[in-house]
Amino acid sequence: MRFSPTKSYLLSLPRTLPRLIRLVRRCLTLDIGARRLGVIESHGQAVRAVGILVDDADEAHRVSVENGAVSVLEPHVLNDDAKGGKMVMAEVNVVLRYVGKHGYKGPMLPNYEEVESLPLTYGLVRLDHAVGNVHKLAEAVNYISKFSGFHEFAEFTADDVGTTESGLNSMVLASNNEMILLPINEPTFGTKRKSQIQTYLEHNEGPGLQHLALICDDIFSTLREMRTRTHIGGFDFMPKPPPTYYKNLASRVGSILSDEQIKECDELGILVDKDDQGVLLQIFTKPLGDRPTIFIEIIQRVGCMEKEESTGREVQKGGCGGFGKGNFSELFKSIEEYEKTLDGTLKA
């Protein structure tokens, strides 16, 4: 590892869903310099930068540039005299934003103020992973891993995760502690329908971030609260799999999930997968804007607890339960069906 990233983040998730939606959409469309750089005009609703909390943003930026990254934003200091401490930010193209807190303990960014909110939580904790779509997977992976020191965490091919109509190839990059996870997808060709990754690349007008995965502690509670508020500005979720998916679920994860939990998965449209270490529960929203591009994933990981050496507390290993390899085909089918409902702008 050439520098020491500690974790990924999504700027202090607020407690209430309307505020979460506003914050996510501000992060997607009003990021620093986004309008000036023409991001919205080119890509529509989109993520411009993914933040990585590091011990030293200056050093992370310097080492990345020395190893091939192109600097987008030189290290600069954000001071907050009222709260004390400072934050240092720097960016390299992809775009990754390195953030060093240097004693800053306030909300969000320096000079932000706390605001009162309802005593209500949806259980959303942090950003688990951020997924990018590119034209050529090998080139992107080699480039990012060279300047960041990230290593390969998992790999999927069209044979693993495609359908009879479309597919993708994917590789997951991870930091040394595997708490920063960056899956990257490329389209495959020669199938009946255009790959959803190719559709994204065309409508996004180039590579970009496909979705943000937000992790929670109790996905059942989180989704029930979110679904009750869809009508006041919440997210619309992708259609759930056919009944056969849930009939077969007990044989796959019955030793880990109870009959009642499997029933809740069916009711809420939650997808379930597992690897040799843990279980992944996940659900996807429909695209957030007027293009079939950026969307949100809500997940919960079960298992893979280990003791942290520095503090002695129990923590969950990054990527526990995998990335839904067994659910890719169901997700693809949902996206394929969703694309067919659009107003004629997408063709097979």
How would you characterize this protein structure?
One of its GO terms (molecular function) is 4-hydroxyphenylpyruvate dioxygenase activity. Pathway: Amino-acid degradation; L-phenylalanine degradation; acetoacetate and fumarate from L-phenylalanine: step 3/6. The chain has helices at 17-29, 39-43, 57-66, 137-148, 158-161, 196-203, 219-228, 243-247, 249-253, 259-268, 328-340; strands at 5-8, 50-54, 71-79, 86-92, 96-100, 124-133, 151-156, 168-174, 181-187, 208-216, 271-274, 278-284, 295-303, 305-307, 314-316. The chain is α+β, with helices and mostly antiparallel strands and 348 residues long. A hairpin with a 3-residue loop joins strand 11 and strand 12 (278-284).
Spell out the key features of this protein.
single chain; 348 residues; alpha+beta; 8-stranded mixed β-sheet; 5-stranded mixed β-sheet; 11 helices; 15 strands; globular; 4OHPhenylPyrv_dOase; 4-hydroxyphenylpyruvate dioxygenase; metal-binding; Glyas_Bleomycin-R_OHBP_Dase
Short description:
This protein is 27% helix and 27% strand. It is of the alpha+beta class. The radius of gyration is 20 Å and the shape is globular.
| Low-pLDDT stretches | 6-34
Q: Distance between the terminal alpha carbons, to the nearest Å?
A: 43 Å
From the spread of the alpha carbons, the general shape counts as globular
Major sheet summary line: 8 strands, mixed
Residues in helix, %: 25-40%
How confident is the prediction overall: mean pLDDT?
81
Helix and strand element order: EHHEHEEEEHEHEEHEHHHHEEEEEH
Q: Would you report the number of β strands?
A: 15
Query: Which class do the helix and strand fractions yield?
Result: alpha+beta
* Proportion of strand residues: 25-35%
Strand order, largest beta sheet: 7-8-9-6-10-13-12-11
Number of helices: 11
Alpha carbon gyration radius: 20 Å
Pathway: Amino-acid degradation; L-phenylalanine degradation; acetoacetate and fumarate from L-phenylalanine: step 3/6
Cofactor: Fe cation
Binding site for Fe cation: 129, 211, 297
Domain VOC: 126-286
